[in-house]
Amino acid sequence: MSNEVAITLRGIPPSAALEARIREKAEKLYVLCPQITRFRVIVETLAGHKTQGNEYTVRLELHIPQHHIEVAHMRHEDPYIVLRDSFDAARRQLTALLDKQRGTDGRTQEAAL
């Protein structure tokens, strides 16, 4: 399995720092679940009102054998905050799925993160 992450930035200038943060957070999910076969991250900006800044949204798509996890429509004016919240939501969903497969309650796995 490859630890490749497909990153798409829409309406955002290329950012090495933002892409590095995405790869760092994705790597933690790969450690949690090495069976991830496909990982896609889309970050885009939604034009705000003239009195407000832009809002960013993040959509994460993870595929593991026989399962698909998607986190979408997270919004915030700071792209790093929306990334954090989106990856946290994906981690919770992935942990719940793995716990269900293993028949555990999840406390051990969460403590490791």
What's a concise summary of this model?
The chain is 42% helix and 30% strand.
Any key phrases for this structure?
single chain, 113 residues, alpha+beta, Double Stranded RNA Binding Domain, 4-stranded mixed beta sheet, 3 helices, 30% strand
The portion of residues forming beta strands comes to 25-35%
- Given helix and strand content, the structural type is alpha+beta
The low-pLDDT segments are: none
Radius of gyration: 15 Å
How far apart are the termini? 22 Å
CATH domain class of the domain at 1-78: Alpha Beta
| Counted beta strands | 4
Helicity, as a percent range: 40-55%
Shape: elongated
Largest sheet: 4 strands, mixed
- The CATH homologous superfamily of the domain at 1-78 corresponds to Ribosome hibernation promotion factor-like
Order of helices and strands: EHEEEHH
Instruction: Please tally the helical runs, counting DSSP H or I stretches of 4 or more residues.
Output: 3
Using the coordinates shown, work out and report the CATH topology of the domain at 1-78.
Double Stranded RNA Binding Domain
Which strand order do you get reading across the main beta sheet? Answer: 1-2-3-4
CATH architecture field of the domain at 1-78: 2-Layer Sandwich
Report the average pLDDT across residues. 85
Word description of this protein:
- With 113 residues, the chain is α+β, with helices and mostly antiparallel strands.
- It has a domain at 1-78: 2-Layer Sandwich (Double Stranded RNA Binding Domain).
- It is 42% helix and 30% strand.
- The chain contains three helices and four strands.
- It has helices at residues 16-32, 79-102, 107-112, and strands spanning 6-10, 38-46, 55-64, 67-76.
- A four-stranded mixed sheet has the order 1-2-3-4, covered by helices on one side.
- A hairpin with a 2-residue loop joins strand 3 (55-64) and strand 4 (67-76).
- The longest helix is centred in the last third of the chain and has 24 residues, at 79-102.
- The chain is elongated and about 45 Å long.
- The model has no long low-confidence stretch (mean pLDDT 85).
